[in-house]
């Protein structure tokens, strides 16, 4: 399973929505249930799935799913 498939599965799990399909421009505005609490849950679930921890500055710089993918790719490189 590639990174995007794994990330999609995390999103689907956190938001309880098997219809979620990620794209790079997607933001919290695109998922109704994506609020501040679910954002924290999402980041924790991503850390668990990929086996790393986000730095505070990385979290602050997140503007969309594409930025999130780039951060994950850099951490896994």
Describe this protein's structure.
Helices cover 58% and strands 0% of the residues. The chain is built from 4 helices and no strands. The chain has helices spanning 3-15, 36-50, 56-60, 65-76. It has a single domain (3-76), classed as ACP-like (Non-ribosomal Peptide Synthetase Peptidyl Carrier Protein, Chain A, Orthogonal Bundle), CATH 1.10.1200. By secondary structure, it is mainly α.
Which strand-content bin applies to the residues? under 5%
Secondary structure tally: strands: 0
State the oligomer. Answer: single chain
Write the CATH fold name: Non-ribosomal Peptide Synthetase Peptidyl Carrier Protein, Chain A
Which bin fits the share of residues in helices?
A: 55-70%
Name of the level-1 CATH class: Mainly Alpha
- CATH superfamily membership: ACP-like
Nearest-angstrom radius of gyration?
Answer: 11 Å
Tell me about the largest β-sheet.
none
Task: State the shape.
Answer: globular
Structural domains: how many: 1
Which structural class should the secondary elements be placed in?
mainly alpha
């Amino acid at each position: 399973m590639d990174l995007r498939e794994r990330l999609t599965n995390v999103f689907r799990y956190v938001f309880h929505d098997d219809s979620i399909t990620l794209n790079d421009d997607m933001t919290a505005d695109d998922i109704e249930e994506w609020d501040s609490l679910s954002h924290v849950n999402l980041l924790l679930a991503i850390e668990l799935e990929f086996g790393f921890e986000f730095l505070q500055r990385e979290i602050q710089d997140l503007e969309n799913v594409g930025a999130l993918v780039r951060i994950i790719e850099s951490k896994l490189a």
